[in-house]
Amino acid sequence: MAELNPNDLLRYVNLGDFLVLHVQTGGYDARIWKVMLGDDSAVLRVFSPDRSAHIEFEVQAMNLAGEAGLPVPSVLASGVFASHPFMIVEWVDGKSLLDVWDGSSSYGFGELHCQLHTNTERQDGSCLLHMDYHPLNVLVDRGEVSGVIDWTNAAWGRAVDDVARTLCILICTPIVDRSDRVFARKLRRIARAYLDGYGSVLGLREAIIRATTAMFDELDYHIRENGLAEPKDARRRLQRWSEFNSKSYLPRF
Prior knowledge:
The protein is of the alpha+beta class. The protein folds into two domains: 6-90, 2-Layer Sandwich (Phosphorylase Kinase, domain 1), CATH 3.30.200.20; 95-249, Transferase(Phosphotransferase) domain 1 (Transferase(Phosphotransferase), domain 1). Helix content is 45%, strand content 22%. It has eight helices and ten strands. A hairpin with a 2-residue loop joins strand 8 (138-141) and strand 9.
């Protein structure tokens, strides 16, 4: 993504005194900075120009999720600057669930996901989906979930597809990136606690097959567009998961 000076953007937004602290992280289509706005910390996210429509819906999704009772950071400003859509949200204290995992936090991880789906359900049965709900996007502070972040992939749809997406991320990530067995076991334990917190889900097997197919598509996209080197044996291992030859990962299925 083309370089953009965050100081110029913050002057344009005009939220008062500011200080850019450091680049927080980055991705294929976004840059993220931690900033100070007066005495308060915030996060500035700047996206590639083709993401404008997505960001508008992301703001709506975050507001809806907050109304549904989830701990979602408040959006302080959003718009387009120098052809780049941006969003400024409040800073949320805490560490990722992956860093501080314990059984109680993972249980709450599942409960909150269920709360999102239940409290945003529409008359046609669809509800708000996060579609990237995993331990790096859930922050924990003093044993409680303090923030659910990164709503870029949010959409309306069936709850079971959001649950299947989360489970596929938890189970397939170590398959694709060849993580060590200790990390893989940790994610499986989180997945079990997540399901305990969420509760029963009808149609989950079929949804997991769809979600795994989507992961194949994403793998192809990142290889083609972002130069990702194809992980060894990833396709074969993902296919095994899709066919449930790896049932032992989640016996409750």
